[in-house]
Design brief:
The N terminus is likely disordered. This protein is mainly alpha-helical. The protein is built from 26 helices and no strands. Belongs to the CWC22 family. GO terms for molecular function: RNA binding; translation initiation factor activity. This is Initiation factor eIF-4 gamma, MA3.
């Protein structure tokens, strides 16, 4: 046992010695590493001191040179150094692509005042920098509440010269703040009405950015570009064909990311596509349905597609195309650009870079004239508003009178058409809040209504309202007369539902004598002068009149001898072909009873033609010899007898046909 204890003690001593040696070795390694680190720090410190010394030497050398240059122009006994001369604030070499060093606004304004030559490249560079900063500032601070105030300030800048800067600023701001995409799209829509080349340039750049992001698999940039295009389609700056092309490309080879981007795109502009291209949107949703049934995409994306179908079922409620506060442009004023994804695109990057313009002053003058036409004479009034403030009391009174005259003469043109939107809202709320049409008519007469206001959807309520207007004032009657002519000339552009509503509205006005019946003279019922749309319009118009008045009263109105001149175009008698066409038309729509006079005229037309030719033949017979006239007289007597017999037979046949018609009508009744 003692031997075993001794062996254990020896083992412990050996382990202790081994551990102590290991700790000593590790301490040596750490000391070595520490010494190496200190050596590197000393080397870095010496390098910094050496570089600081060189820099100090260079500064001292520069100070000595400045002192020597400053001391040359002073007296030797003063022994003072003069201040170095100021370097010119503008140097062409110091100005790079982005405008060089930052210049404060006050110093930039002072530099622009110091420049004598307004057409020099230096002055053009300064105005370019000021234009870039102004456009960036206006685009960055625009939102839904102040967009109406930002738009006049934006038009005050030279958007023709800075169209590249404007497009670049809009794309950068939209990329940084995708939630404000609809605001930027509304801003671009307003600018596009006055400068279509700016809207087209922006659309081309966004499409190019979209194609690049799609090739590079850059999802954030692709989402931003897709959202911008969706809202440009909502504002009708871009045609809906580009939306359908984009969705086709995204869903051709579906992946999780491409399907997600497509779902977001349809969510943004699906409401507009449902109205403009329902068949195209139906095809897109069928493709979504096929992808969902295949089940090859992720569960999360499948849930997104199901949510999109729920939004479509709810008719895109909560995802309207344009918010009311951003609906600033009328449909007829907007210019839509048709661009395809397969078209070659030139982004015109050179417009973002400053280039001297040899005709700079002329270009600026032309834009000033254009700005006055867009914004009015506000700038001129503001320039002359503060003149004469230091004169006496008499001059102040004269200035006040002049200012009042200027205010009376000043006419502000609302490019956003906010007043028109508010007027439509007021008319709608007035009609909906009235008990009956008479109350609505009295309320609407108190509003300053502009000519040409009309409602798209027809109800009998609106017919009574139009009747009330026509009965109160003849001005409305004349306006509805003009509307009838305009609607009939453009009837081929309307859909069948809208065409039916227009026909019912005017039929109500004619049936209640609110509109004079001479407006029917604008309609010419022949095969050559009518189209399928105009025939549908005439059909619905006369069917509604027969329901309002009845076939008997309608026939009496149409046979009124005082109005026959107005009805000659509807019941033509110039050509048997046109007469037969009118008879067949009214018979096919169930109103053959109003064509009885026309049928009689068609039957008697050969006799009328013969009677018209009879004086001509008699004049020719009188020019012949007397002998021949005697022989002809006996023959003519026999012919007259035969004609009288034929006429009596025709009248008897007509009477029999009339009796048969009356019996048939009695049986039907």
């Amino acid at each position: 046992s003692d031997d075993n204890d001794d062996d254990d003690d020896d083992d412990e001593i050996e382990r202790y010695d081994r551990g102590e040696k290991h700790t000593r070795d590790r301490g040596r390694v750490e000391d070595k590493d520490r010494s190496n680190g200190e050596r590197e720090q000393r080397r870095d410190r010496k390098d910094r001191e050496r570089s600081d010394g060189d820099a100090k030497h260079r500064r001292n050398k520069g100070d000595d040179e400045l002192k020597e240059r400053g001391a040359d122009g002073m007296e030797k006994e003063n022994n003072e150094y003069s201040k170095p001369q100021k370097q010119p604030l503008m140097q062409e070499g110091n100005l790079g692509r982005t405008g060089g060093v930052y210049i404060p606004p006050f110093k930039l304004a002072r530099m622009m005042k110091e420049v004598q030559d307004k057409s020099s490249p230096e002055f053009q560079r300064l105005t370019w920098d000021a234009l870039r900063k102004s456009i960036n500032g206006l685009v960055n601070k625009v939102n839904a509440t102040n967009i109406k105030n930002i738009i006049p300030e934006l038009f005050a800048e030279n958007l023709i010269r800075g169209r590249g800067l404007f497009c670049r600023s809009c794309m950068k701001s939209q990329m940084a703040s995708p939630n404000f995409t609809d605001v930027f799209a509304a801003l671009v829509a307003v600018v596009n009405t006055k400068f279509p080349e700016v809207g087209e340039l922006l659309l081309r750049r966004i499409v190019l950015q979209l194609k690049r992001a799609y090739k590079r698999n850059d999802k954030p940039q692709l989402l931003a570009a897709v959202k911008f295009i969706a809202h440009l389609v909502n504002q009708k700056v871009a045609h809906e064909i580009i939306a359908l092309e984009l969705l086709t490309v995204l869903l051709e080879n579906p992946t999780d990311d491409s399907v997600e981007v497509a779902v977001g795109f349809v969510t943004e502009c699906g409401s507009l596509l449902q109205d403009l291209s329902p068949q195209g949107l139906h095809g897109i949703f069928e493709r979504f349905r096929g992808i969902l049934h295949e089940g090859e995409i992720d569960k999360r994306v499948q849930f997104l597609i199901e949510g999109l179908f729920a939004i479509r079922k709810a008719k895109f409620q909560g995802h309207q195309a344009v918010r009311p506060e951003l609906d600033l442009v009328e449909e007829e004023d907007q210019l839509t650009h048709e661009l395809s994804l397969n078209d070659p695109i030139d982004p015109e990057i050179a417009l973002d870079i400053f280039k001297p313009d040899p005709d700079f002053l002329e270009s600026e003058k032309r834009y000033e004239d254009l700005k006055r036409t867009i914004l009015g004479d506000e700038s001129e009034d503001e320039d002359g508003s503060g003149a004469g403030s230091d004169n006496g009391d008499d001059e102040d009174d004269e200035d006040d009178e002049d200012d009042e005259e200027d205010e009376e003469q000043m006419k502000i043109k609302d490019a956003t058409e906010t007043n028109l939107v508010n007027l439509r809202r007021t008319i709608y709320l007035t009609i909906m809040s009235s008990v009956d049409f008479e109350e609505a008519g009295h309320k609407l007469l108190k509003i300053k209504l502009e000519p040409g206001q009309e409602e798209r959807t027809y109800l009998r309520y609106y017919g009574l309202l139009g009747q009330r207007f026509c009965m109160i004032n003849k001005v409305y009657q004349e306006n509805f007369d003009q509307c009838f002519v305009q609607q009939y000339s453009m009837i081929h552009r309307l859909e069948t539902n809208k065409l039916r509503n227009v026909a019912k509205f005017f039929a109500h006005l004619l049936g209640t004598d609110a509109l004079p019946w001479h407006v029917l003279a604008y309609i010419r019922l022949t095969e050559e002068d009518t189209t399928s749309s105009s025939r549908i319009f005439i059909k619905i118009l006369f069917q509604e009149l027969s329901e309002h008045l009845g076939i008997r009263l309608l026939n009496e109105r149409l046979t009124d001898p005082t109005m026959q001149e107005s009805f000659e175009s509807i019941f033509p008698k110039d050509n048997p072909k046109n007469t037969r066409f009118a008879i067949n038309f009214f018979t096919s729509i169930g109103l053959g009873g109003i064509t009885e006079n026309l049928r009689e005229y068609l039957k008697n037309m050969p006799r009328i033609i013969m009677q018209q030719q009879k004086p001509v033949s008699e004049s020719e017979d009188e020019s012949g010899s007397s002998g021949s006239s005697d022989s002809d007289s006996s023959g003519s007597g026999s012919e007259s007898d035969s004609r009288s017999e034929s006429e009596s037979e025709s009248t008897s046949s007509e009477d029999s046909e009339r009796s048969e018609r009356r019996q048939k009508r009695r049986r039907r009744d």
